[in-house]
């Protein structure tokens, strides 16, 4: 029999199959497992795998929900499970590609109705607040109505920092009694990491004496890419002997600002760019070649990229938000106001070079040691069981 990689591609019998397989693989020695089905499913980013790493040890059967509209099928397993919980992560799938504002509102009402029916049948709901609202929101009013509806219906609202609730307040009213804080785990060991700095630089064509600033991950307008390029150019003008390099890697969308950034970057002799999705095995070349990472977004809540940089021992320059201040160790990070002028941004880039030279990888890794994925996952699983009123495992 050929392996079919259940949970990686939806089939005709999804999501029944994924929950069935999760229950079969679960430990039943302490009774029926508690099913936790999560969506949307992100395979390129190992965040979810890290977050749920220890859940099986705490009585959960974790299953990907590849067809998120098919909530009713989750309850087909009610007799086989002690409980069934739906964990919503990013919810941009609800309105993705919808051009009409009125139809967007109808879709919001529809999915909230399905969630209501799921809960009426005994299901529990958890929502993780990843962003203040979806990055590519075309119908902001509808997206915020959806987000508020989910927050109102959630039994638990998972945030990655205590300051998230205040950051959301402008857009979504969150009941503080529902909030459960579980930090973003670091990525140490989640990506292939066998190459050296020298080999990585040789592969990419970067000299040993260059200071390399890295922008890694999806290239989106909200990441302020053009402002980053302008600040980098100003730094080159101010310090022409500095030997700086801007390294960019990640899949690009079709926003005009992103396309302009790519066009200018490809012609820039101090910018090295790979504007396409980077396989996990190749991420190490960009991360090991860099001296520091940039997460200077114009709109930001949490940042997996910041922790990815730090997981490879890199100091970062990040947008100055309460959540990122709470997340990043102060001795390994610098901060920049989201509305800072280009000259201030350039000055912080120069300061980042000094920080990179004075900070060791050990300094950075020690600062995120408390974000060990197994420990974060185990604590989250235990706390979630308690908050959902599940029997102790």
Automatic annotation (TrEMBL):
SUPFAM superfamilies hit by this protein: UDP-Glycosyltransferase/glycogen phosphorylase (SSF53756)
Protein's GO biological process: lipopolysaccharide biosynthetic process
CDD domains: GT4_PimA-like (cd03801)
Coiled-coil stretches: none
Superkingdom assignment: Bacteria
One Gene Ontology term of the molecular function aspect: glycosyltransferase activity
Keywords: Transferase
Protein name in the entry: Glycosyltransferase family 4 protein
Organism: Kocuria subflava
């Amino acid at each position: 029999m050929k392996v079919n990689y259940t949970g990686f591609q939806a089939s005709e019998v999804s999501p029944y199959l994924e929950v069935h397989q999760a229950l079969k693989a679960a430990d039943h020695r302490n009774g029926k497992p508690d099913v936790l089905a999560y969506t949307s499913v992100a395979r390129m980013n190992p965040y979810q795998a890290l977050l749920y790493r220890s859940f099986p040890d705490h009585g959960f059967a974790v299953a990907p929900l590849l067809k998120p509209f098919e909530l009713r099928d989750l309850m087909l397993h009610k007799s086989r499970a002690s409980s069934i919980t739906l964990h919503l992560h990013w919810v941009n799938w609800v309105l993705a590609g919808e051009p009409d504002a009125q139809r967007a509102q109808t879709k919001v009402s529809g999915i909230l109705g399905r969630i209501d029916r799921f809960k009426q049948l005994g299901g529990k709901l958890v929502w993780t607040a990843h962003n203040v609202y979806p990055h590519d929101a075309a119908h902001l009013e509808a997206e915020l109505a959806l987000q508020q509806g989910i927050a109102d219906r959630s039994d638990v609202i998972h945030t990655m920092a205590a300051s998230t609730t205040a950051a959301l307040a402008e857009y979504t009213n969150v009941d503080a009694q529902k909030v459960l804080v579980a930090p973003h785990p670091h990525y140490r060991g989640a990506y292939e990491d066998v190459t050296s700095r020298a080999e990585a630089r040789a592969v990419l064509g970067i000299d040993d004496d260059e200071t390399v600033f890295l922008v890694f991950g999806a290239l989106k307008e909200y990441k302020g890419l053009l402002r980053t390029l302008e600040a980098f150019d100003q730094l080159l003008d101010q310090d022409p002997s500095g030997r700086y390099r801007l390294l960019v890697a990640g899949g690009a969308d079709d926003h005009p600002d992103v396309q302009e950034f790519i066009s200018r970057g490809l012609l820039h002799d101090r910018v090295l760019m790979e504007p396409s999705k980077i396989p996990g095995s190749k991420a190490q070349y960009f991360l090991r070649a860099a001296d520091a990472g940039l997460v200077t977004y114009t709109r930001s809540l949490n940042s997996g990229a910041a922790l990815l940089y730090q997981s490879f021992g890199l100091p970062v320059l990040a947008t100055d938000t309460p959540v990122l201040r709470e997340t990043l160790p102060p001795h390994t990070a610098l901060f920049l106001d989201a509305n800072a002028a280009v000259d201030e941004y350039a000055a912080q880039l120069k300061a980042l070079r000094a920080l990179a030279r004075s900070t060791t990888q050990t300094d950075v890794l020690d600062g995120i040691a408390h974000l060990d994925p197994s420990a974060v996952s185990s604590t989250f699983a235990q706390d979630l069981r308690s908050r959902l009123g599940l029997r102790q495992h």
